[in-house]
Design a protein that fits this description.
The chain is α+β, with helices and mostly antiparallel strands. The protein has nine helices and 14 strands.
């Protein structure tokens, strides 16, 4: 912490001293003026400082005259500062004087006390910074002997960057929402395509990693949206947006008509979600896309899907062997021919 109060010759009645717990309110008010933001954030940071839990600032100096706090300086030691060749470097993290006390030597007194603090800790250089457009602060720094050493532009990049914007909801039912898939849905696809029921009744798509799932989405759903204007859609609970499966329309090169398909995570089955979402997709296909005929396929022993397709109004049209499949599937259609 800092040593005791320092009187400043030439500035009548002005004292610079370490901040005390009793100064929390006054310091917080000045902090709010310098860095407008949430009052609670400043209060929490100040409390951490007085509790000895803050990494920064390491010291706070207040300027006081006749019991009134006129300004503050927040200080730290940095391993490196732009333009400096020594280490550690004393650093002026924050510096503020109330407007009515400016041009009266208050800022100079605070910096002088800050420099003394840095020297006591073995520093041979003292540094600071200000925003590029803050010309008043830049002029004040120069007047106190600081030299401008570098002007930099700072950049940031989020590491949770989205691959593409999340599409808007395409369909909405009483309990569900359906929207196009994106590569951000890779976790859902990875889990869904490795569910035992998916592997048994639909097949093994060879998706074993998140990257596999991303490629599946890129080469399947996204390619279908672009080529056909439809594809499989992400299904989520309306109230929470928790993804529960997918349902949509598929177009196979070897067949004339698109087919409706669906798959759901096992923990969300037996709730009527497949019927609810597939009903919406069939209506969308007929009324919006203008598809005259929609078909569906299921494994011969998938009794649950067979019952569901009947409930959706599709009728059994015979057995068919799809391209690339080893066994036949049951064919259902909305328009028997």
């Amino acid at each position: 912490m800092l040593a005791g109060a320092m009187r400043n010759p030439g500035f009548s009645g002005l004292v610079t001293r370490p901040a005390r717990a009793a100064d929390a309110h006054a310091w917080g008010r000045l902090r709010q003026a310098l860095w407008p933001g949430e009052t609670n954030e400043h209060e929490e940071e100040i409390a951490r400082f007085f509790a000895g839990l803050a990494n920064e600032p390491q010291a706070v100096i207040l300027a006081e005259r006749e019991g009134e706090i006129l300004g503050f300086a927040e200080l730290s030691l940095r391993v490196y500062a732009e333009g400096c060749s020594s280490s550690p470097v004393g650093y002026l993290e924050g510096w503020y004087v109330v407007p009515e006390a400016r041009r009266q030597g208050v800022g100079r007194a605070l910096v002088r006390a800050a420099e003394a603090w840095a020297k006591e800790r073995g520093c041979t250089e003292f540094a600071s910074d200000t925003e590029l457009e803050n010309t008043r602060s830049a002029a004040a720094h120069r007047a106190l002997g600081f030299e401008e050493v570098e002007i930099i532009r700072c950049f940031r990049k989020p590491l949770t960057m989205r691959t593409e914007p999340t599409p808007k909801t395409l369909l909405e039912t009483e309990r569900l929402t359906l929207r196009p898939l994106t590569t951000d849905d890779a976790e859902l696809i990875l889990e869904l395509l490795n569910e035992p029921a998916f592997l048994q009744y639909i097949g093994d798509r060879g998706v074993r990693t998140i990257e596999d799932a991303r490629q599946y989405i890129l080469n399947g759903p996204l390619a279908s949206y672009e080529q056909h204007g439809f594809g499989p859609y992400r299904v989520a609970l309306k109230e929470t947006d928790v993804p529960i499966g997918m349902c949509g329309l598929f177009k196979r090169d070897s067949l004339e008509d698109p087919d409706v398909g669906f798959a759901f995570l096992s923990r969300f089955r037996a709730n009527g979600y497949a019927f609810e979402s597939a009903s919406a997709v069939l209506t969308y296909g007929r009324e919006v896309l203008g598809l005259p005929r929609i078909v569906a396929f299921t494994a011969p022993d998938n009794e649950a899907s067979i019952r569901l397709l009947g409930k959706l109004g599709l009728t059994f049209a015979g057995m068919i062997r799809l391209t690339g499949e080893d066994s036949e599937s049951r064919l259902f259609t909305t328009d028997p021919r």
